[in-house]
Amino acid sequence: MSNLKLGPLPKRGIVRMTVPMPEPLKEELDLYAAEYGRQYGEVDTATLIPHMLEAFLRSDRGWRSRKAKLAGEAATAGVAKLATPAADH
């Protein structure tokens, strides 16, 4: 049996969100959670979803590239802000 892409879940803080989704997607997520439970121990679908989204974002090369660019722009803006002399009052 091949391993699932999503491995054992880390412990983290929680922020609650409500996300509407089509019924077929919910059914697919429930099937995934059942298979995940057979490999790693029982877990409910709602617990898996944030970890699945995180794995998706980490694997999206386009997003990683844009995120790095945004971080670079923010860092450059921060350096420019530090280099600007403060006005005397």
Note down, in words, how this protein is organized.
By secondary structure, the protein is mostly helical. The chain has three helices and no strands. The chain has helices at residues 23-40, 45-59, 61-83.
Describe the structure concisely:
The chain has helices spanning about 25-40, 45-60, 60-85. With about 90 residues, the protein is an all-alpha fold.
Overall spatial form: elongated
Number of DSSP E strands:
0
Helix-residue proportion? 55-70%
- Note the gap between the termini: 70 Å
Note the main sheet. Answer: none
Order of helices and strands: HHH
Q: What radius of gyration results from the CA coordinates?
A: 20 Å
Low-confidence stretches: none
Number of helices: 3
Structural class: mainly alpha
Mean pLDDT: 86
How much β-strand is present in the residues? under 5%
Which helices and strands occur, and which strands form pairs?
Blueprint: H1 23-40, H2 45-59, H3 61-83
Quick tags:
89 residues; elongated; mainly alpha
